[in-house]
């Protein structure tokens, strides 16, 4: 077998996502049927086999990368344990005065092992995902300088979901180093945690302490878990087929050929893309969480009604929650507490502490802003690092870097303006918690999110700037007619169906925000009502789902990150 053949995709080309017919009609039912007849110990190994089978079907021989990644994490955990045990033994043999220095020696050895794990996962990710981007930009600089040499631009095949299981692997190694969890001694258990098929493509990014025990000790499938999980999968499928796929052709047409459209049309496309992104990603999470629930596995939620947010900072605490907590726990806090960062930011905080605060000519508003930022250089620098990393995590393109910096500026600006806003509210005796103001905050946040997603979806940074420029300078709707809608492969009925679904999702979100779970409310109804709702739901999906001739299914957006 030659290397190229190993890297070819799997044989089941139709299994592309959790919404593909091959997955829903064949793969998942077969997994469930076999699982249900196996004894408890056999179920864990069947899930492991099914997970690797699923990964091979979507990534082919690149599943070897997942296996190697797991093997490296297994070795790292065992090596850290060995060093920790050796440390305990040696500490007992030396004088109390020498123990601190000895502990530092062993701590440095552990750090080297963790660094190796990080270099393997993050370094490998950087090489596979970003080396082409780096080489292309170096070549652009060389061309501008008139140099006659060029770097070869490499191209690599990437395993689906590589970013997600790479971050999980790093979290596992760091948690073992910190003593949060013991190192896993069972390779199969670690492999199942790293590869569990419902979450391997798009997350959520799980911690070992959250799901490993559940996965290894899965129980029998119950009717309650089956019905509840099925309903959540159905809800996700509805978001995907009725909204995300329906808008795909229109969004692709505008973003690919934005020069042909007025700013008003581009603005509508940007709004539609934000809707599509949410419906696709949150719908996928519904399918993932629902599938895991069938097996009795509870994973961390990745969405918490983000469009109810009153600020950009709150929005990103509600969107892709597991990624945000990963960056917070493994980048923000470690960087914040590092000695070098403390020393550098202390010097930054000392700068300007001279006459600025006491200057009589300094406006009161500027003093309020200064006081809000004073002494926060470390926090601001860490937010910059986190958002730069967040932008780059999404892809190797300047548009993603801009996306990260855009949100950094918004969060920084929000932190600076907050004291001014509070002073204003106090002076005019305005209740900042009033419904009109909260509604204004939610609308403002949504608009800012839409602008950011425009650059996120744009084919390049230049395209994003050009599209935003057209929205600002050419915001017209004169060209919106039946001819344009036909060109965009969308019509009034499509918008009506999408609007109905948005109202439905909004209503469900309001209930969730108030602590109600629709599936639980449905379970409390009598059997006839439950089955009537389910049949109506399935029929609605069959009638209005965007599939078949004339539709291009949306590829899993976050699977490519």
Textual characterization of the structure:
This protein has 561 residues and is an all-alpha fold. The protein folds into three domains: 3-220, no CATH class; 224-299 and 471-555, no CATH class; 312-457, no CATH class. It contains 23 helices and no strands. The protein has helices at 3-6, 21-37, 40-59, 63-91, 96-144, 162-178, 187-195, 208-216, 223-244, 248-256, 263-294, 312-318, 321-337, 339-350, 364-373, 377-394, 398-428, 435-457, 461-473, 482-487, 492-513, 518-523, 527-544. Helix 4 (63-91) packs antiparallel against helix 5 (96-144), helix 5 runs antiparallel to helix 6 and helix 11 (263-294) crosses helix 18. It is globular and about 85 Å long. Residues 1-13 and 352-362 have low confidence and may be disordered.
Keywords summarizing the entry:
mainly alpha, 561 residues, 23 helices, disordered N terminus, single chain
User: How many DSSP E strands?
Assistant: 0
Q: Which H/E pattern describes the elements? A: HHHHHHHHHHHHHHHHHHHHHHH
Distance between the first and last residues' Cα? 30 Å
Regions with pLDDT < 50 over 5+ consecutive residues? 1-13, 352-362
Silhouette: globular
Roughly how much helix do the residues carry, as a percent range? Answer: over 70%
Structural class determined from secondary elements: mainly alpha
Rg over CA atoms, rounded to whole Å, is 26 Å
Query: Mean of the pLDDT scores?
Result: 84
Give the number of domains: 3
Q: Which sheet architecture does the biggest sheet show? A: none
Report strand %. Answer: under 5%
Number of helices: 23
């Amino acid at each position: 077998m030659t290397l190229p053949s190993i890297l070819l995709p799997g044989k089941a080309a139709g299994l592309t996502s959790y919404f593909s017919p091959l997955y829903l009609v064949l793969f998942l039912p077969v997994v469930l049927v076999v699982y249900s007849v196996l004894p408890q110990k056999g179920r864990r190994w069947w899930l492991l086999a099914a997970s690797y089978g699923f990964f091979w079907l979507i990534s082919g021989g690149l599943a070897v990368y997942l296996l190697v990644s797991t093997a490296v994490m297994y070795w790292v955990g065992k090596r850290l344990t060995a060093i920790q045990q050796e440390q305990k033994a040696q500490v007992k043999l030396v004088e109390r005065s020498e123990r601190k220095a000895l502990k530092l020696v062993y701590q440095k050895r552990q750090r080297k092992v963790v660094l190796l794990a990080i270099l393997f996962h993050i370094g490998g990710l950087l090489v596979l995902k970003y080396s082409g981007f780096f080489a292309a930009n170096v070549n652009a600089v060389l061309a501008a300088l008139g140099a006659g040499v060029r770097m070869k631009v490499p191209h690599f095949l990437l395993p689906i979901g590589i970013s997600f299981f790479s971050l999980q692997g790093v979290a596992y190694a760091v948690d073992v180093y910190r003593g949060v969890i013991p190192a896993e001694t069972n390779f199969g258990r670690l492999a199942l945690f790293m590869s569990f098929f419902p979450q391997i493509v798009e997350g959520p990014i799980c911690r070992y302490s959250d799901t490993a025990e559940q996965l290894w000790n899965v129980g029998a499938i119950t009717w309650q878990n089956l019905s509840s999980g099925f309903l959540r999968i159905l809800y996700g499928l509805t978001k995907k087929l009725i909204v995300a796929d329906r808008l795909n052709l229109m969004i692709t047409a505008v973003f690919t050929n934005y020069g042909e459209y007025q700013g008003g049309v581009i603005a509508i496309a940007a709004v539609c893309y934000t809707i599509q992104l949410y419906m696709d990603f949150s719908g996928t999470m519904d399918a993932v969480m629902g599938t895991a629930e069938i097996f009795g596995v509870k994973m961390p939620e990745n969405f918490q009604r983000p469009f109810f947010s009153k600020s950009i900072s709150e929005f990103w605490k509600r969107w892709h929650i597991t990624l945000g907590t990963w960056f917070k726990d493994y980048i923000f806090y470690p960087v914040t507490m590092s000695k070098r960062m403390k020393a550098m930011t202390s010097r930054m905080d000392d700068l300007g502490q001279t006459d600025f605060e006491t200057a009589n000519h300094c406006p009161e508003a500027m003093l309020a802003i200064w006081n809000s930022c004073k002494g926060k250089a470390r926090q601001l620098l860490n937010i910059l690092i986190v958002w730069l990393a967040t932008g780059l995590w999404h892809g190797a393109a300047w548009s993603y870097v801009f996306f990260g910096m855009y949100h950094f500026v918004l969060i920084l600006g929000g932190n600076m303006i907050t004291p001014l806003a509070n002073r204003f509210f106090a002076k005019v005796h305005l209740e900042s918690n009033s419904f009109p103001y909260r509604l204004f905050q939610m609308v403002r946040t949504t608009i800012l999110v839409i602008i950011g997603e425009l650059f996120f979806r744009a084919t390049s940074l230049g395209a994003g700037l050009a599209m935003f420029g057209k929205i600002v300078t050419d915001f017209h709707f004169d060209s919106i007619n039946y001819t344009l809608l036909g060109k965009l492969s969308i019509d009034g009925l499509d918008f009506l169906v999408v609007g109905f679904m948005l109202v439905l999702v909004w209503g469900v979100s309001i209930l969730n925000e108030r602590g109600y779970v629709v599936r639980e409310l449905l379970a409390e109804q009598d059997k006839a009502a439950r089955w009537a709702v389910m049949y109506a739901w399935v029929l609605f999906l069959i009638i209005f789902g965007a599939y078949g001739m004339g539709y291009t299914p949306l590829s899993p957006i976050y699977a490519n990150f």
